[in-house]
Amino acid sequence: MCGIAGFIGGEWSNGAQAAAVIRRMTRTIRHRGPDHSDIWLDNDAQVAFGHNRLAIVDLTTAGNQPMHSQSGRYVIAYNGEIYNHVQIRAEIMALGASHEWKGHSDTETLLAAIEQWGVRRALERSTGMFAFALWDRAERALTLARDRLGEKPLYYGRTGTGAPLLFASELKAIACHPEFSLEIDRNAIALLLRHNNIPAPHSIYRGISKLLPGSLARFTQRAALPQIDTYWSGSAVAEMGVADPLRMSADETVDSLEHLLDRAIGEQMLADVPLGAFLSGGIDSSTVVAIMQKLSARPVKTFTIGFAEKGYNEAEQAKAVARHLRTEHTELYVSPDDARGVIPRLPEIYDEPFADCSQIPTYLVAALARQHVKVALSGDGGDELFGGYYRYLLTGALWSRIARVPKPLRTIVARAITSISPSAWTKFGRVAGRVLPKLARVDRLGDKIHKGAPLLGSASVAEAVPDESGTDRRYRGASGARQR
Q: Is 2 designated active site?
């Protein structure tokens, strides 16, 4: 990963003062990019960019940022990777463009694509994960952009009339600006209690937003509000898929999916530094590692963490998969003290409340992997893309049975169910399992009952499906998302 930060306007008495502020913002998130750090300012336009680089592709100075386009019109501070940038570069050259490349970084390719087609069309051609700030010197306009699924973070906003527009990869960089007002957004607290996180576009601070996935935000000095444009919509893609489903046999579908996975994972393996993978032993991460191993000329480095508690330990499955695939496997068993030691660091890592218990093991496995590699692929997102959570099937089946029951009655039942603690339900399941063996085989019955209870009080099946952030993810090695 890399880190970006910047601001426009505000108290700008002189360039030296502005430079000191942007350096402070950039230094605050130096952990995101320890390989190179730099700033860029335009005193006339009162614009400041900062960038911290984690060098993955093109390790030379030609990949350093903030980066200027060849014409000098655009300046970019960029975090992420465009996986198909080699194809985009070839397409630009095929058009007869007289571009003189300084290196082979995807940042340079993205800038050339923007000069060739404009921001929106360049992003529509780009496959990857990214968040960036782009300054157009000709139109004196700032564009903020985020990838289709929001893998890379980007916060922006202003906290008062006349205050500067601030943006950064992390809230801590925004919070250290001298004109930032640290005011908690109470509505965000309500969202946290409902979803176990603070969903975009909200943040914990009033006036600061998360840019929505698949979106562009354009700011000009003439307009009081930004122009928000969606260049990609997941719901629109899903609706098109339902309207025009695949007409393939089962074998053809499997072959097509394998081809897509090979291409996607192969593109994500392009790096000028060592890379590996998180492996949990589940379907998602095992699939990613199997394809990596197939495409790699040497054993893939895999990493997992284990727990002494059998109900939470996936290390044995991961070890079995690693043995079968012949990866270079590293595992670390975590003690309660190891987990507790991470807790004081969580506010520093996440900047705002985030109630997902996977954050501790994810940090630990990332720290383990960082001792050996600079990039790690994972299996996050597989269950969402392929309907892997059993609740997707179970919710639809249960809803067809209970939908005709009046909602007030269902709400009363839901409250009665949740008045009994999860541990009491689990204990009941063990006792009842002597008569009903299937019940005894349900792991953490009480947690599942409490998570399913909201279904009873829901107005529709869409409202009933629990938010993933509120589920017990534990550690899952991830699917297709690069952890940096």
A: yes
